[in-house]
Structure formats: C-alpha cells, structure tokens
C-alpha cells in the first residue's frame, strides 16, 4: 500500500489546473519550496514522474495525465464516504465529464440516453463539444472522463481503453429542386460547386486518406459539419456529410445521395483512460459496453 497523503493529491490537482508552482502554492496556502517538496514526495511514493518541469508553463507527463483522473476519483469518493459516515444527507451529484466532436454530440449522444441518463445513478453530465482534435486533447490532458469521437490510432493502445459504437458513412449529397431532383449532377458536370472540409480537420484528413474527392470547384471550406450541412441545404454546392447528421433530411427528401461517389466509412468509439474512475463512471462505461454497434446508433 502506497503511503500517499490526500493533501498531496489535492496539491497535484491544483498544480495540474494552474500549471504554475508559485500560483498553486499560494492557493494551497504553503510556501513554494514546501509545495514543491510535497509534489516530489507524491512522485517518489508513486515511482512516477507526473510533472514535466522543462516546459513553461509546466505540463503533465503522460503518467501525470492518467493519474489526474485517478486522483480526482479518489478525492471525490473520500468526500462522499465521509459525508455518509457522518450521517449527513448527501444530495450532491457526481459530474461525469464528456468530451465529444460537435456532430457526434448533437446527433448521437441523445441516442445513448439509456446509458448516460441512468436514473439509478446520482450523476449529472457535463458535455464539452469541440472540433474533433480539440475533443481528443481534452481526454489526453485528463480533462474529461469519456471521449466520444472517431477512430484515433493513438487512443487504440494503452493507457487508453475504447468501446466500438458503430460505423457511419460520409455520403456525397446535394439539395433538391421543387420537383425533388438533385440541384447538381456529377455525371454530366465536372465543375459542380463543392463545399469541402479544411485539410487539417478530422473529416478532411479522413477524406484524404480515402482519396475521396468531389470537384475542383471548391466554393467554401470549413471544419464544421453543421455549417457545411446548412450550406448544402441552401443549394450552395455538394459535399460529404455523415449519415447520422442527415438522416431526417434524407427521409424528407431535402437531400439526396449522389451515387457517383462511393461513401467513406467512419468508425465511432468512446474512449477513456485505463485508470479506475468514479463508481458512477464505471457503471456508465459498463452500460456503454452493452450497446449494440451500428443498430443502436444508426437505426
């Protein structure tokens, strides 16, 4: 059993948040030398380097990012148990932090309500929706419990765990005219205006890997799926859009798939660190592991 003091865990969490030894020491009401010794004591007891002191501001090492999740869970569980043993009525809810790509948060998370909104768990959700790469960084930095996003090579190995949620597809689509015919015809026009994803965005990289191209006539580029979808619906051009984001528009006939282009697959996952999380997070993870791929998400 490691001889770790809870104040060291609290010191570490404050340092991780402020990224500055002097500021963190002030918040913890100790001198900076004493604060630094406490952080070193924690690292020594764990046998791990948690802080990269060569960076300015300081950064957590990979071990530090992983341990941050553990430290948060330990502190919260101790607080809950002390309240229970003291006989006080504990009405607080544990907040489960979710990070997600914008389009995934809007279109897919509500479909996982039975897993995420379990009435038996005294939890609340905090959902941070960002660009895909920003959402991934929140998990890597230990700033969320779960990440809902697309396939990422670096998250498929330790210290991360993942659950496969299903496969979606990017379809080439066009708006329609009053007669229900597509506004643009790729078969007879090589210069159709198109709306592309920026090369550095996740969708842009996925399309590049698949060598999926539209036409040379790019009239607008963006990293935001919802923005591109709005422009396609306005008839500004054709584009690739994920099936889960256009299900209703395809069903109502507002959009049609241009079959001249093969769909591009996108695999969806939920990721986390291997570190043990709060008990309510673990229950939620177990429920997510029971989700039936594809049907649950795209059905």
Quick gist of this model?
It comes from Photobacterium indicum. By secondary structure, the chain is an alpha/beta fold.
**What is the number of strand segments?**
11
Distance separating the two termini:
48 Å
What is the CATH H-level superfamily of the largest domain? Periplasmic binding protein-like II
What's the CATH topology label of the largest domain?
A: D-Maltodextrin-Binding Protein, domain 2
**Secondary-structure element order, as H and E?**
HHHEEHEHHEHEEEHEHEHEEHH
Q: Any idea how many domains?
A: 3
Number of helices: 12
Please state the CA-atom Rg, rounded to the nearest Å: 23 Å
Measured as a percent range, the helix fraction is 25-40%
Strand content: 15-25%
The CATH class of the largest domain: Alpha Beta
The low-confidence runs, each spanning 5 or more residues with pLDDT under 50, are none
Shape descriptor reads: elongated
In round numbers, the mean pLDDT is 87
In this structure, how is the largest beta sheet organized? 7 strands, mixed
Structural class by SSE content? alpha/beta
The CATH architecture of the largest domain can be named as 3-Layer(aba) Sandwich
Family: Belongs to the LysR transcriptional regulatory family.
Keywords: DNA-binding, Transcription, Transcription regulation
Pfam families: HTH_1, LysR_substrate
Protein name: LysR family transcriptional regulator
Written overview of the protein:
The protein has 299 residues and is α/β, with parallel strands linked by helices. It has three domains: 6-84, Orthogonal Bundle (Arc Repressor Mutant, subunit A), CATH 1.10.10.10; 90-166 and 267-290, 3-Layer(aba) Sandwich (D-Maltodextrin-Binding Protein, domain 2), CATH 3.40.190.10; 167-266, Periplasmic binding protein-like II (D-Maltodextrin-Binding Protein, domain 2). The termini are far apart. Helices cover 38% and strands 22% of the residues. Helix 1 (6-18) crosses helix 2 (21-27) and helix 1 crosses helix 3. The protein has helices at residues 6-18, 21-27, 32-46, 62-85, 102-107, 113-116, 132-140, 202-209, 225-233, 247-252, 279-288, 295-298, and strands at 51-52, 59-60, 94-101, 123-130, 146-150, 160-175, 194-197, 218-222, 239-242, 255-257, 264-273. The protein has twelve helices and eleven strands. The longest helix is centred in the first third of the chain and has 24 residues, at 62-85.
């Amino acid at each position: 059993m490691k001889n770790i003091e809870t104040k060291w865990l609290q010191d570490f969490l404050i340092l991780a948040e402020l990224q500055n030894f002097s500021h963190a020491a002030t918040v913890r009401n100790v001198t900076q030398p004493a604060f630094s010794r406490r952080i070193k004591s924690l690292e020594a007891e764990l046998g791990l380097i948690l802080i990269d002191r060569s960076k300015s501001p300081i950064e957590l090492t990979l071990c530090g990012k992983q341990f941050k999740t553990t430290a948060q869970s330990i502190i919260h569980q101790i607080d809950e148990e002390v309240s229970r043993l003291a006989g006080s009525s504990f009405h607080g809810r544990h907040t489960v932090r979710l990070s997600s790509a914008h389009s995934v948060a809007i279109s897919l998370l509500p479909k996982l309500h039975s897993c995420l909104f379990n009435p038996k768990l005294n939890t609340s959700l905090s959902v941070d929706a960002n660009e895909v790469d920003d959402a991934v960084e929140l998990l890597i930095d230990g700033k969320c419990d779960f990440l809902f996003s697309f396939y990422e090579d670096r998250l498929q190995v330790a210290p991360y765990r993942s659950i496969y949620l299903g496969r979606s597809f990017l379809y080439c689509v066009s708006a329609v005219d009053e007669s229900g015919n597509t506004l643009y015809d790729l078969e007879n026009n090589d210069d159709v205006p198109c709306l592309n994803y920026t090369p550095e965005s996740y969708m842009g990289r996925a399309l590049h890997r698949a060598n999926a191209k539209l036409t040379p006539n790019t009239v607008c580029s963006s990293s935001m799926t919802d923005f591109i979808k709005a422009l396609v619906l306005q008839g500004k051009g054709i584009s690739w859009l994920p099936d889960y984001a256009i299900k209703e528009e395809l069903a109502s006939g507002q959009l049609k798939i241009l079959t001249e282009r093969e769909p591009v697959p996108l695999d969806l996952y939920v990721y986390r660190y291997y570190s043990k999380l709060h008990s309510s997070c673990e229950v939620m993870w177990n429920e997510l592991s029971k989700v039936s791929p594809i049907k649950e998400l795209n059905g």
